[in-house]
Amino acid sequence: MNQGSQGNQGGRRSQGKEGSQGSEFAEKTLHSHPAVVASDKPLLDISNLRVQFPTRSGVFDAVRGVSFTLGRERLGIVGESGSGKSLTGRSILRLIRPPGVVTADAIKPNGENLLACTEKRMRDVRGRHISMIMQDLRFSLNPVMRVGEQIMEACAVHGRYRRKETRRRALEMLEAVSIRDPERVFRAYPHEVSGGMGQRIMIAMMLVPNPDVLIADEPTSALDVTVQTQVLSIMDRLVSELGMGLIFISHDLNLVSAFCDRVLIMYAGRVVESCRADSLHEATHPYTRGLLESLPQLNQPRSRLAVLTRDPAWLDEPVDSP
Ligand SMILES: Nc1ncnc2c1ncn2[C@@H]1O[C@H](COP(=O)(O)OP(=O)(O)O)[C@@H](O)[C@H]1O
Ligand SMILES: [Mg+2]
C-alpha cells in the first residue's frame, strides 16, 4: 500500500505494533494522504498555557506552561491519568469552570487571541473553528432531548447552514460515523443508544459545523476495537481530506504512535517530551521510557510489568522542542 507522507508534519508508519489496539488500526486503515495541502501556517498556536485551582493548602498548578503549535496534522497528547491532558484541551476552548483560572501568553487560532475574546465570540469559535469531543459523554449529550434536535441545535448556534441543509448534513455525518440507521438515531433519546453509538453521535455532532480543529479527548477509549478502528479512520479522513487539525488525547501510547503524526508527552502538567509519532518507541525522556516499558507486550511475555518510577527533577527541567 502506498504510504503517503505529504502532511506537513512528516510521514506515517507502515508497520503495526504488537500488543495493542494500535496495531489493529495501523494494519487496517493507514492509507495514503493525497489531499493534504502542506501549509506552514499553524491552525493553532498555544504558548505558556497554565491552569490553576485555588485550594485550602495553596494554588494547585494543574497545567504548567504548555506550548505547542498545531498544523494540519494529527497531534497526539499522551501521559498518565492526571497529567493535565483534558484540562489542556478544555482550556483551549475556555471550558474551565471557576475557581479554575486559565492564563496563557497565547491561545491563538488564526492569530486571534481567545483569552481576550468575549463569551459571545467564544460560542462562535466553539464548534465553528474548534470542536471538542469530551472524555465524559455524560456531560455532553442532553438526556431529555432527541439526538437529532441536539445536533440541529448545536449547528443553529453557529448559523452556518439552513435547517434543511443542517438536517441533511447531520444525517450524512451520522452515516459517516458508521451509524447504519441515521433516521432512527436522529429520533432517539441518548438513553436509547449504546455507549459506543453515543460516542459516534458526539463525533458526528462535532463535525457538522465543519471545524478547522478537532480536539478529541480519549474519543475511542470506551469503544470496542472494531468501532474504534472505524472512528479513527473517520478522523483520519477528516485530517487528510478536509485539512483539519486534530488534537488526539489518549493514554494509549501504541495507538497514538500508529495513528498520529506527532506526539506530546505530558507529565505533571507539563510537556516533558515531544517527538514524531513513528519514533515514539525511541523516545529518550525517562518518563516516556517508563511509560513505554510499563506497556504489556504480547510477543514478550513477562512475569511482572515494570513499575513507573518518577524523578522529582522531571517536574521543572527544561523541555527540548523537536
Ligand atoms: N475542577 C478541578 N479542581 C481541582 N483540580 C482539578 C479539577 N479538574 C482537574 N483537576 C486536577 O488537575 C489534574 C489534571 O487533570 P486532567 O487534565 O483531567 O488530567 P488527565 O486528562 O491527564 O487525566 C488532575 O490532578 C486533576 O485532579
Ligand atoms: Mg482526561
How would you describe what is shown here?
With 322 residues, the protein is of the alpha/beta class. It folds into two domains: 1-129 and 215-322, 3-Layer(aba) Sandwich (Rossmann fold); 134-210, no CATH class. Helix content is 33%, strand content 20%. The strands form two sheets. The chain has a six-stranded mixed β-sheet, sandwiched between helices. Strands 1, 2, 4 and 5 form a four-stranded antiparallel β-sheet that branches. Strand 9 (262-267) and strand 10 (270-276) form a beta hairpin. The chain starts with 20 loop residues before the first helix and ends in a 29-residue tail after the last helix. 43% of the residues are buried. The model is unreliable at 1-38 (pLDDT under 50). Residues 53, 60, 62, 79, 81-87, 100 line the site of adenosine-5'-diphosphate.
Index terms:
Rossmann fold, 10 strands, alpha/beta, binds magnesium ion, binds adenosine-5'-diphosphate, four-stranded antiparallel sheet, 2 domains, 322 residues, disordered N terminus, 10 helices
